[in-house]
Amino acid sequence: MPPPFALQPAATLSSSGFFKSMRILHIIGSISPEAGGTTEAVRMLIRYTPPGYTNEIATLDEPTAPYLGALSVPVHALGTGGWYSAKLVSWLKANRDRFDGVMVHGLWGYNSVAARRAFSGHKPYVVFAHGMLDPYFKRAFPAKHLKKWVYWLFVEFWVLRSAFRVLFTTAVERDLARQSFWLSQWKPMVVALGAEPPPYAPGSSLPAFFEICPEVKGHRFLLFLGRIDRKKGCDLLIDAFAALRDRDPDLHLVMAGPDASNWGLDLQAAAARGGIADRVHWPGMLTGEAKWGALEGCEAFILPSHQENFGIAVAEALACGRPVLLSNQINIAPDVAADGCALVEPDTPEGTQNLLTRWFELSPPEREAMSTQASRTFAGRYDMRRNAEIILRVFEQSPQSQDRRENR
């Protein structure tokens, strides 16, 4: 199904030039790399900003946060690392005339409240939902969802209703969002997210990964790359790998990602009970060259998640030409499965075992065909060098931009 609002050719990139520049402000609770895929999406939008665009970031991070210095654009850290900052609204109001558009990343935080207070009626803002309206949370945490209803009625409903557009990364996410709260009114737009291609020459990043995870060197392995979190289905994967340990005794499993809740200790104990402790490796969070080395070195990427709005790590695996083994709760799963580079099963114990079984049963030529298609799918769907431009161009359709066009 096509997006309900189609983008027109980019005015800022035309030879005659409707605009001299477009200055975009990104508002996010935290830009910490450990905060998950939302922060990586912001970083990619900035890295692949098209000509004529400039970016700034406003966050609730502490000004002394060590990761702020690594960003290539001005960052206005206006908080103390918590949910609220009295400085944010006043700063936004004082600076709103400097920006042509505002992109609010995520919901259920003070960043979205502040954006509406500062910009509604003055400057177009869009809300990038990043999966935060998925009804999974309604099913998984019913008591918490009831509390959210109050916040929704008085706050987030109005944030989204006042937004120029609400951005979803797939038609699946857009349609599911309507199921979270029966009271909903917004202007949706589907935009493709994605990933960047590997920045290293083929094979050159493997040593960086093996330096962090030397136990896996010389072995074939599947890769899980994400937060060690119950939502990600990590327990399903450990149990399935243990149940099928004799189907491919030379295959190892790498469980890479941050573990904020220390759940990994329970998972390691489960691996030991299943007789696979020596074949499951826990290198922690992988970044930079080590992350790309893990993606390049794995046999396939696996993610049996209970809910995944997009899955940037999935797109990164495709960029490395790796087949992906996914649960059917990942919103891009139908597309990549239709392309022929993914196996998809339900997010259940049986479904996760089926994922592994189907992979074991593929012939080498079939696996090679999936790898070839993975690279094609990334190039055709998820290359952020192209998709970042499409996302940022949303502001060219705002009434204020139309007025500037007519004035010029």
TrEMBL record:
All residue ranges annotated as the Glycosyltransferase subfamily 4-like N-terminal domain in the record: 39-191
Domain of life: Bacteria
UniProt keyword terms in alphabetical order: Transferase
Domain named Glycosyl transferase family: residues: 215-374
Any one GO MF annotation of this record: glycosyltransferase activity
Record-given protein name: Glycosyl transferase group 1
